[in-house]
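Hi R.,

Quick one: here's the Apolipophorin sequence you asked about.
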Amino acid sequence: PVQPNAGQCARYCTDASDFTLRPGSTYTYDYETTTVTTVQGGQEKTQIQITAQADIEVLSKCELSLRLRGVTLKLSDPESPDYLVSLRGAREFAKTIERNILRFSFQNGQVEHVCPSENAPTWVTNIQKGVLSAFQSFSVKPEWTTRTLETDVLGKCTAEYHSLGRNWQGTHTVRKLKDLSSCTERENYETYLQGSAYSQDFQTMSLPVVKGSQECEQVIGDNFLQTSTCNEKLIFRPFSNRGNGVVATVSQKLIYAATSERRFTGNDYRPTTEPLLYTHAKQEVSSAKIEEETEMVLRELCDAAKVDISISVPRKFSGLVYKMKKLSLRSLKSFYQKIDKICPQNTDKARKFFMDAIPLFASDARKFSTASEAHYFLESIDSGIHVDSHLIFSTDSYLPRSAMFNLTVDIFGKSCNLFQIDGRMEGLEHVVESFFGPGGYFPQKNIAKILREKRSVDNNKLNLIDSQFNQHYRNPHQPYGSLDVKVFGTSMWYEQFRSNEDGTPEINLLDIVTKLAEENDKEYSRSFMFLDTTFTVPMTSGLPLKIALNGTASVGLKIGGKFDVKSFEQVDVLGHIEPSGAVEISGLLTVDAGHFASSGMRIISTMHSSSVLDGKVQVRNGEVVKAQLNMPRDRIDVFNIQSKMYLVHGTEEREKAIDKREGTHLQSCTGRGISKVFGVKICSSLDLPPYRPNSPLQPLNGPAAFSLFIEKTDPTLKSYNFDAQWKNEMKKGGFVKHGVFSLNTPESRVDRDVKMELYVNEADHTATLKIKTPVKKFGVNAKLVDGESKKLDFSVNVDDKDYFSLQSELGIVNVKSSMYNVQSSLEVRIPSGRFMAATGTADIRLGQKYSGQLKIEDLTEKPILAKGNFEIGKKDRYDIEASLSSFPLDGTVKGYAQMGDNIASRFNAEYRILEGKMNKLSIVGKMRNLSAAALTKYSGSLNLQASVLPEWNTELVFETMKTTGHIENTVSVSLGDGARSRIHTIKLQEILRYEGSLSDNKVDGSIKLLYPEKNINYGLSVKHENTENSLKNTLEIQYAKNRQISTDVQLKKSTGNLLSVAGDVKLSYPGREAAVQAELAQNSNKEYRGTASCQWQTGRRVAAVLHYKDKCEGSRLKYEIDGNMNLPESSPITFATIVSYHRGQFAGSAEMSQGNDKYRAKADITAGNGLNHRMAGQLMIKNDVYGIDAAVNSIKDKVNGNVEVKMPNRQRATAKFEGRIGNGQF
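And here's the predicted structure, written out as tokens:
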């Protein structure tokens, strides 16, 4: 049953009274909350702290009010983030909070709703709700765990209450846990992303942007809250790595201080009620101030885009969008009329920025049908992507009728159109043919014919579809076309054309050609915001955590010149093109304390490019090409990308500087050669933060930057002039081709005149190349003779002097089927004479024999002669024989290899180095397959004999075998020849036997390494056996002769109803024997016996026995523990403990003895009704006895008590007291 309360914030009052507060009293608490925003895995951190005294006045059992006083606001010091400092404006912050009192309905520990005053700022009420969220609790019985749906400032969340029991003072401790990812009515989400909402049938929703949890511990005493301590952790999931990333932690403390009779709540009636949920509200700013700020932003934007799209334009444009969003329609019209005054020198661009910002206010989504689609969707994260496109032809035309491409992503429960381009055209066949048809401007290409061949018009299905089209669109004499480009659902560019009213095409080719021939300058610019999302989530403190993501792009293009084309053989092009663009993506994560201060961080990533291409091209008679590339700028920024991090402290944003002592910092430019030849240098720079394991992903791990630019090194460089000519003439039955290419930089003080000439005579197969530079002249001549044998003459001259010449000849004769004879020669000359001459022959019998020789003269003092012979015999036998004669190395090699199931080979070599002593080398190897049935077995050997280093003569023998339950491998290596050096033998053997399954098996294995010459005798053996109820394992390691380390492990457990487990572990090595034994046995349901011993050396042992009995009967509780311990060189120790409790009587005793020394302690406590309690205790240390008797009695309003302490030698101390209880005082 409940009691109705009209005219109060608490509309009713429940009869439940697990939590009771005395009406007419005010309970004061010390309150503190600190929010820390940090990049885990990094060093960046900001803090914001609020402290206050919270007064809770109890107007009635369920009608309470909250007042905060002594409010302080502190932020972390930007120089030392661990220290907190006061903030300018903190006094006004405190006054605003302190003058607003919040009444609330308190129903048995839960804050059902609150009643703020009419003019209370929303942010003040949210902070008060944070205090009340810590104040409210839930009744949990001792030793119980309860799950309940709880409403507080964090949202509607499932809370787990765990009782941690009561202490000796009677206070009850409760732990509360929340997974904030499952909370509802919590976050606020605002986005510009255009899209259509969709529903899903599966239960898993999108992964949250912020993952959070809360853990609180509350202490309840005297039926009201004593302390409440909460810790909340929020992780920003994007760019995090294994939990490292942007993390916000909130600590909140509410500690009871005192109770008083003072009152502060008036008698005002507050009809407005609202739940304890966080209230999301927008900040209101005066219209005049917004207009003033908007003008300033547009003025700065015009200055930034005066020459080109600078790197700061996207950020300033996004600022313009945010300001214009807050203007009314009337203010927008007024603002547009003032643009000429705001940007008098850049009016066109200013109006373009204004118009570009207008579409960004909309949020409608466009939907397009598709002809084909490819998509991928991942239900677990409720996100996906799909691409659709179509290209449709009509049977009346070889040109496509329409085309479309669309890229869409499914994210945040919406389908968002990222990019789309679609177009349509009809009746343009005659336009194409007027350019490329037989009577067109460029008839030699006849492109119309190519298109007709590529696209057949005979298609029955297309005929059927096309018959349904309107006749207006089927008329090929009425041209029509359109093209539309959209980004994020916003039309970025749209163009269309159609026929005139009389049916003639709107396209006039003569007008087009005439306009192209005229010199014109155009400038285009476009700015748009492709990402604008704000995500707000409340925290335990009542402060909001705001995450704002913004993406803005600005592109600009200056283009001018003329395009005069009379034919493909006569072209004049003059013009310039200056593209520039910038993209900025900004992320802001802050904790806001009203409009007074913010704490957090901002991350800005930008991309920028500004280039220029200026020049002219001339083509005459299809052969002469002249071009000029101008260099109007001293520097061209090809590409620049950078990521910066700012720490937000109050109203200040401080950039985190790049530490040149850490991370990667590279700068490089092209060398002096490029600079001298071209007068420019190409440079790049790279700055990356230091790598740390598990650090967050870029851009959270620190500032980074990359840039690529071109910069003049010759200030007088104005342009590059190119001149190219190509002629093709028929002479003496063949074509003679002549080409000339030249490059120079006029007006430059550096001579860069370069000229190249190429002559090619197809009749006599000759070619000549001449190159002239300011430094050198080069010439290249080549002649090719193609007959029965091929000959090549090649020469190079420098400054008209022979520098290098080469003559070569190659002849191949087919003697008969599959038999060839090859002869070749090569001669190289340099100015000092013949550098090298080489001749070679080869005889080839395909698949049987290959032989040949090579002779090289003049390269070394002694001619080089190499011979070789390779034969392929029967039964996979291969024979080889080779020789080499030269000054550095002389020698022969002879050998064979026999392949198959069994392998055998032998190679013998004789050689000498620098005409020294003749040496011998022999390699013999074999391998045999001895496998049969279930046995797999191989054996083999490898023998290496050398006359130079006989001590390294090597013989390797191996054997490997495997069968069911058995694996064995043996390897033996012998070094030395036994005559001039002692033979060293190394042997490695491995044996493994196994049987059974994983739960019931036996394993027996060993590894041995023997090296007698080095006194090495190593071994490892293991035996293992286990069943479901036992385990045995022995391990032995031999590290020298008669020197072993061994271990023995045995575990077992009983299979009966009573528990019985035992374990035995032994370790021994020379000079030490250690062992550990333990056993636990259950004698009955209430009796256990345990034994344990530890030996660390022979004769050095510790043993212990422990006996536990549970003698509880009904409400009588009684527990006994006794045991003994044996220590080396010491008397045994025995001990016993008894604890009992029944109906307010507690008794406990403990005793211990060692030899003649005895120790005893006992206590008896009786808890009566009211304040009637009695306690007696005794402590005996050896022969000294201490005692205490204490009692408290109360009769009506009279209380008396006495305490007596007994000391050894009959000494006593006695104390008594008396008192009265009345009017709530003692």
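Residues 284-362 form one domain.

Cheers,
M.
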